[in-house]
Please model this.
Amino acid sequence: MKNKVIIFPLLIVATFFLTKFWSSSNKDIEKAVSVVPIVVDTPNWEYGLMIDSFNVSQGEIEPNQFLADILLKHKIPYTKIDQLVKESKDVFDVRKICAGKKYCVLTDKEDTAQQAKYFIYEKNPVEYVIFDLEDSIKVEACQREITTSTKMASGIIESSLYQTLVDQELPVELAMNLADLYAWTIDFYRIQSGDEFQVVYEEKSVDGTVVGLGEITAANFVHNNEPFYAFRFGEIASYDYYDENGQSMRKAFLKAPVKFSRISSRYSLRRFHPVQKRYKSHLGTDYAAPHGTPIMATGDGEIIEARYKKYNGNYVKVKHNSTYTTQYLHMSKIAKGMKPGKMVRQGDVIGYVGSTGLATGPHVCYRFWKNGKQVDPFKQKFPASKPIPVEDKDQFEIFKNEYKAKLDSLKPKNVAALKTSTSKGVL
Ligand SMILES: [Zn+2]
Model:
């Protein structure tokens, strides 16, 4: 009896839903059947014009071809071309028209003379200039709408990052963007086979055609089996990349390789050499400090030279990344264990102040290379290295966890587990 009481209302409910479902799906079928196809001429828009009413002739600017050559062919008199050149100056200088770029001439279908009504010059896939050739000439610089979509990619490096991207038909600009992002962490000239990456990035397209890459949103680069995560975080105008701990991916150099010192000679292209007694350039910064003062590496990096040379005395050279290298001269002693191949952290003691080589008194001559050229470190604009502000920490954690999960899902073992044949896809 008790069971019947429960089952009966259940039956009513079930019948209600079943009939409801049945009738609604029937209605859908009726609707589908009753649709009568009506052919509507939807006008095609291009360049903000209803293109169907024009005859369109497209082409590519040939070498040494001028705007006048094209327009004369399309019945625009020379006087008008002259007027156009003058009037368009503020919007677009027609002398900048260059070979290989696409253009388009529109003539009215009704016009028996087929005189050009519009000339459109495509600066690139995004920007174009439209010349309205009617009585009063109008020139307008226009832009197509850019759509940004999120993409994911991953790969294991066999020969080079570039080749891995090419093999996977991924945009090669990703290599540059990754190298920039990891400039302070990984030397991209030294990445090796077996290194892997996972990346979430933006792609820009116009009318379904990819026109370029946007920013990297998050990435993980596994170098020497060590993961390096990077997350883009912050306001659009002032975002930065942070590691898993919320530390900036960009690191500044220490202001000086020695504490409690004074600069005795700055970087200069012409100074009087105290020992050689003649003018010559001094491409380093000298810090005078007591004999034996510890000298620190000003940034993370790898020691590439640690030896004695006649003029340099005992010195150590540190390569920080593919852009920056520093060198420390005249050491009384090179610190223990400092030899080529040794990795050092910012602040590690690499030697001690002395006056070996060509030096008058105890000092360290600090030399700084950017892209192979000695520069004045004081004139370099180094990125600020600030951690995530305390008040944004919670938000960063949420963002980081979301994107870390996305990156981890792209790891080779996870991709294999999903049995996906491609590691590329839209989010
Ligand atoms: Zn010096």
